[in-house]
Amino acid sequence: MAIITENIILCDHCGAECRTADITSSDKHFCCQGCKTVYDLLSDNNLCTYYSLEEHPGETITSDPDNNRFEYLNHPDIKNKLIEFSDDDFSVVTFFIPSIHCKSCIWLLENLHKLSKGVEHARVDFIRREVSITYHPEVLNLGELVKLLASIGYEPQVNLDNIDKKERDRSNRSLYLKLGVAGFAFGNIMLYSLPAYLSHEPLDPNFQFVFSILNIVLALPVLLFSSTDYLKSAGLALSQKRINMDVPISLGIIVLFSRSIYEIITGIGPGYMDSFTGLVFFLLIGKLFQKKTYDGLSFDRDYRSYFPLSVKIRKDNKEQTVPVSSLEIGDYMNLRNRELVPADSVLMSDSTLVDFSFVTGESTPIEKKKGDLIYAGGRIVGQAVEMIVSKEVSQGYLTRLWNNEIFHTESQDKDLSTITDDASVYFTLGVILTAVISGLYWMHISTAIAVSTFTSVLIIACPCALALAAPFTLGSAMNIYGRSGLFIKNTSIIERISRIRSIVFDKTGTLTQSNQSNVNWKGQELTEYELKIIGIILRNSTHPLSKEISGKMTSGEKHEPEHFEEHTGLGISGRIDGHTILAGSINWLLKNNIDVNPGDEKPRTEVHIAIDSHYKGYFVLGKSYREGLPQLFNHLRNNFELALLSGDNDAEKSNLVRFFRSDNQLHFNQSPEDKLTYIKNIQSNGNRVMMLGDGLNDAGALKKSDVGIAVSDDVGSFSPACDAILDANRILTLPTYLKFARSSMVIIFISYTISLLYNLIGLGFAVQGMISPLLSAVLMPVSSISIILFTTTATHLTAKKMGLSSWR
Amino acid sequence: MEVIFLLIGFSLLLAIGFLSAFIWAVKSGQYEDKYTPSVRMLFDEETNDSSSLNQNDPNPNKE
Amino acid sequence: MALETFRYDNKIVRNFAFATVFWGIIGFLVGLIVATKLFAPNFLGFIPELTFGRLRPLHTNTVIFAFAGNAIFLGIYYSLPRLLKTEMYSKVLSNINFWGWQMVIISAAISLPLGFTTSKEYAELEWPIDILIAIVWIIFGINMLATIMKRREKHLYVAIWFYLATFITVAVLHVVNSFELPVSFMKSYPLYAGVQDALVQWWYGHNAVAFFLTTPFLGIMYYFIPKASNRPIYSYRLSIVHFWALIFIYIWAGPHHLLYTALPWWAQSLGTAFSIMLIAPSWGGMLNGLLTLRGAWDKVRESPVLKFLVVGVTAYGMATFEGPMMSLKNVNAITHYTDYVIAHVHTGALLWNGGLSFAMLYFIIPRIYDTKLFSKKLANYHFWFATMGALFYVIPMYFSGITQSLMWKEFTPQGFLRYPNFLETVKQVIPMYMIRAFGGVLFITGAILMIINLYKTVKQGSLIAEEEASAVPFKRNSQKRREGEAYHRWLESKPVLFSIFTFIAIIIGGVVEYVPTALIKSNIPTIASVKPYTPLELEGRDIYIREGCNNCHSQMIRPFRSETERYGEYAKAGEFVYDHPFLWGSKRTGPDLEREGGKYPNSWHFLHMKDPGSTSPGSIMPAFTWLYTQKLDTSHTIAKVDAMRELGVPYPKGYEHEAMVDLRRQADSITKDLTNNGFQIRSDKEIIALIAYLQRLGTDIKAQPTTAVRDSILSEYSTK
Asked: Does residue A395 have a pLDDT over 60?
């Protein structure tokens, strides 16, 4: 039964407010026919559990299910790219479906086979929001499959991007294995090493012998398998004449192992196998902790993520679907509502609205007339249009932008050596020096002692704790950021954030509330009645502007006008109770010979209204800025150089000056290249830049800047290539984010000092040649664990203090 | 105390058994997805709808 | 059509459910009886089959293997097929599993009161039953593994991992601990002796608790908490870590049951170390269970199932914290041998195992009978009775445990024991025993309410013997390709596999080589004066075992002044080399007997066993009157001597021919001594053998006149 709160009816499918109460099916209410259709479909196949698992779990159905949008998927090139595995009778394909969000989604998608015989088996990965489907192509082709998904509100995101990186990264698998082996060996070796420490008198030689043998056997796989990453990386570094943290670690690992072997074989002592395996075990835990990634998000989407895979073209008077890549100049394309313009092309239809939000981030559609050149990346709004390709995809404006070298060459200056690496250089040198000196010092007494001292120094100094400090601090910092709305690509970014000097904003989306403009009425006062009838007319129009305005008006009862017509690209006219209402562009009103006193010069999005051929005035749609921006900027201005790069005209300049105080940091009508060069300039002055943007046009700048943050209202949906994705509503937290990054680095430094202390204590013993297995067996875990505890708790406490939600 | 060797022997065999199980689990992708299974196990696949509803009844014992 | 329909076998679930309830009640009742006997020793007295010493093992066995055991099968046979989206592999095996297990229990219920016991805790059952257990268990395992093989759901839910661990580990433990040499049908001696026997027993004993009462119930927790609350487990990731961590640590905590015993010091400390490490995974599991219900406490208020689950998991948390604490040497010094251990155990048994089992019953029965629970109110009453019962049980036991310990250890300023007479410490705690029994009554009342409730539920519903379900099998083909991808990784890990294989070889070799040596070595007396038991003592020892004396009397003096003062020289490993099995005991309801030999004259024992009160006023020991009438069964004496020799006890060659003669000579000498003190008895009565054994206890290293007879016998003979 639909939930009715003060006679607002919520759709039983998607939970949206129902405008009317008359779309019903078996005592359930729906906001639109789309939702109803889904319900009927499910109930027919008794899949109504879908509704009993969660309250109105569905997605509002926007696109009409019965069109052939998906036919292109059956094009062999595309199909072969999408399908993971195919066999004579079935195929396996995995889709990314952003709308997967709850228990019910999992349940319904995994019961897909009940909706179509063609589907054999479907399996959801909730975190990745992926569904992997096994289906029978001869019963149900790929297009139909996707259509089926779309028809129940789970339209997959299919594009070149997710085609190309079909291969999922399974590197974690081998990490788990390494960890498992290390853990297993560590546990058992402890079992055989503890007795030696625990017994007061030396252990019965029988036991000692067997235990030592077992230790060696168990330690072997840890050396040959679990610790390979460190050995390899160290080797690589050395071969490149570099020193990174893995060098001293590997040194320690090797020395620990070989000396243990030596001691066991010569029967000097039980060896250090427990310390050795423990070391590797803890290191690997650190690695795993640092490896955390947001499976749901993608940080490196480029233009291909937005482009369609194929388009409908008309060749010698028959329609056919061709992959975008094979578009040729002069092809006639047919683009429908919400389809992207794949290549720069010329509009052939009279007029249309184009939404360039992907390119500029500006969400209000722009009107284009016959013959206008439309850049690739625009999205058609309204009914289908025809256009002629004027440039090949590869030559297109966007593509050129994206072929800019910075997207292909991972620019060096960006991954600057991390502090751990810096630290490790001095550390390693220091250790080796100490080792050699103390070795030489003992030389005069005996080589044996000298060697043992030398090795003990290397063992004790093995920077386990040091190596754990950064991973655990940054790892938990990353978690905290994630929980408080900033999703970071990888831990090294945090370090970069901590070094930011200047911040560059992109106006649209970043500062303004996207798809939430404020509507102002300019003109003579409207009466209640006039407002009402205007509302009714606008509500009848499909035009986005009309929708936006009517959305702002208090929704009166739905009332059918006696007459209504819509003239695309111009406006609408309708009659209610004998009153004729005109709404649309100035030209539309002029066309209907109404004398209009034009609004202020600045080109703006306006909807002019005339009732009974009397000009009433016009609605202005201005961007509304997020709350609290002034405070935000006052805060930032003190610590950072601020600048604004906007792709739009300077219409909003007056408003923006409020935040930036002076207008010499405000730059309008910026082309992507402009933004890019601007960032370059700042960097050339040795400043580290953070760029916040949302549009594709920012992508270049985002990529170039030291920290590129994509601001998005729907974090999951999409965002240009970037280092981090920021939930648009959390933009005010920016100063805290920056501060937190810096304090995280402080924490790292503190823990460095602590672990260095441990090392000094150990070295104290080592240089005197007074190192025992027991000592290292105690020192190693104690130092590691205490560092882990310190870093994680410190990070969380700091976060709590700064008001970043820290605990789940 | 030679019997300890016996115990160690058997314990090790067990441990190795479990280790190989672990290796199998990771290799065969058992732990690729560490969330969905916990939700999936809540679903009782039903052949008719009515049973489904009381199957998913959060509280089995209401009168 | 890919969709396959199949049927869950609810009959077998029903059977295990009923068995759980039935044996539960039996187990609880026997528990109540033994509890009562501790303050009213003559309650159901003078009947050999119903003495404390014989019923206590029956209690433990019924609640662990009959109640908990059937509950485990109930949980597995219900959840496993549903998690794997397939029916059990074979109904036949399922039924063999069911009836086989009931046979095990019944034979236990018969053989234990009759006095057939190995004396090893939780492994009392004699060898034929051991074999039956092994067979049934293997069949269960095959059935489970085969079901997993033909599963339709690719992923093995964490609960299943816990079930698997249970099967494999228990199988190994049971086999290793049951290496025994049969003497006759229903009588055997363990391969290991003394300290070694003790270590194996407690390696088993601890892991029996770990893998029979913990891992399967954790699996049950991971299935039923999400199901009953209809929300996914708090963190699935954590549950996976929980499993693997637990698995790799648990197996080695065993020795903490032998702290301060003759076990090598380092082995004891090892036990402690690993027990402490166990806290982490255990609490991880508990929190995971409880946090699942965060924000759903209203549901908990609603549903008795969840109530039982919550209390159960909480109890698990308490027990798993208390356990490691008790394995700390200094804590253990206080709690061991006292009622504290009983309290600890019952926190787990009554609430964790009991609670989860009840929860399962309330969850499953209405479902398989396609109806609602008859009365939620009644179930809630049960919940409160159970919880209150448990509290009334454990609190007095904790109290009496501490009291006992303090009184045992208290010295006067002059440096004498404050309570030299053990009886004072017993009388002190008798009120506690009474309250404990009351707690038991409450708990059982609750259980009876459950029976009524379930009976009504069953009546109002009708069993869906075959519950139809449908699922799509996962494509194994698509997964093959993945293997292909992982090929290079397989190469990467070749060293691991390689070392694993070599390793397994080494171990098997090692084991094969060491079992014999271990036994030979272990039987080389490290203390010259320690001699084998005479035939009569051997028979006496077996009576001691039959009557289950070791349930109340330890034979292990720990190296504390309070104990050496009270009982004499502390135990040395070398003293037990001929003890097949070891009889160290784990509880001192009565005083330690390790050095009982020669403490009192034969006549004292004669009187004491006939009527404990006569020699020790206020004693709660039952009277063993039948020992005075029953004739000592010597038909197996020679076989026993042979068996012992095979186990490495150095009876001289051909001694078996002389055994009977020796037996009579020693019996006569004791009878004579008794007659001299005015007690008439024929020398072929069982009591004589028992006295002989008691007088021998611990005398080897304090050369005593009483041993003279025996020494003469052996030395004399061997000189021939």
From this structure: yes
Cα–Cα distance, C247 to A271 (Å, whole number) = 26
Q: Are C256 and C206 in contact (CB under 8 A)?
A: yes
Q: Output the pLDDT for position C691.
A: 96
Nearest to B15 among A188, A207, A210 (CB): A188
Amino acid at A409: T
**pLDDT tens across A670-681, in order?**
777 778 888 888
Q: Which two tokens stand for residue C239?
A: 């549950």
Q: What is the pLDDT of residues A415-434, one digit of tens each?
A: 445 677 777 788 888 888 88
CA-nearest residue to C497 within chain B is B20
For residue A396, give the DSSP letter. S
Q: What's the distance, CA C186 to chain centroid?
A: 19
Helices marked H in C465-493: 476-485, 487-492
What 8-state DSSP symbol labels residue C62?
I
More confident residue, A107 or A775: A107
**Contacts (Cβ under 8 Å, ≥6 apart) of A664:** none
Query: Residue A311: in which H helix or E strand, if any?
Result: strand A310-315
Nearest CB partner across the interface for B5, out of A180, A191, A210: A210
Task: Give the pLDDT of residue A358.
Answer: 66
CA dihedral C108, C110, C112, C115 (to 10 degrees): -150
- Residue C481 near chain A (CB below 8 Å): yes
Give pLDDT < 50 ranges for chain C.
1, 478-492, 703-720
Question: Predicted ipTM?
Answer: 0.85
User: A612 near A579, Cβ under 8 Å?
Assistant: yes
Q: For residue A191, what is the nearest residue in chain C, using CA coordinates?
A: C270
- Give me the pLDDT at residue A361, please: 59
Q: Which of A90, A210, A217 sits opposite C499 (nearest CB)?
A: A217
Give the closest residue to A176 by CA, choosing from A225, A136, A237, A210.
A225
Token couple for C109:
């219920």
| Region A470-489 average pLDDT | 86
- pLDDT of residue A414 exceeding 80: no
pLDDT at C640: 93
Total number of residues shown for chain B:
63
Residue B49, pLDDT > 60, answer: no
DSSP H or E run through C311: helix C304-326
Nearest to A503 by CA among A319, A693, A370: A693
Q: Would you state the pLDDT for residue C146? A: 93
Alpha-carbon distance C22 to C16, whole Å? 10
Most A-contacting residue of C472, C498, C521 (CB-CB within 10 A), to test interface: C472
Tell me whether A216 touches chain B (CB under 8 Å).
Answer: no
Task: Identify the pLDDT of residue C660.
Answer: 92
Residue of C344, C223, C326, C215 lying closest to C281 (CA atoms):
C215
What span, in angstroms and rounded, lies between the C-alpha atoms of B55 and B51? 6
* Residues near C395 by beta carbon (within 8 Å), at least 6 away in sequence: C343
Chain mean pLDDT for chain A:
79
> Please, which residues have CB within 8 angstroms of residue C423's CB and are 6 or more apart in sequence?
C616, C617, C618, C619
From chain B, the residues in CB contact with A184 under 8 A are: 15, 18-19, 22
**Max alpha carbon distance in chain C (Å)?**
93
Q: Encode C330-358 in three state secondary structure.
A: HHHHHHCECHHHHHHHHHHHHHHHHHHHH
Strand ranges of the sheet holding A579-584, from the earlier edge strand across to the other edge:
A518-523, A614-622, A606-611, A579-584, A571-576, A563-567
Question: Which is more confident, A723 or C544?
Answer: C544
A166 touches chain C (CB under 8 A): no
Q: Phi first, then psi: give them for residue A324, nearest 5 degrees.
A: -50, -40
Q: Quote the pLDDT of residue C712.
A: 43
In this complex, the chains that touch B, judged by 3 or more CB pairs closer than 8 A, are A, C
End-to-end CA distance of chain C: 87
- Would you tell me how many other CB atoms lie within 10 Å of the CB of residue C111? 20
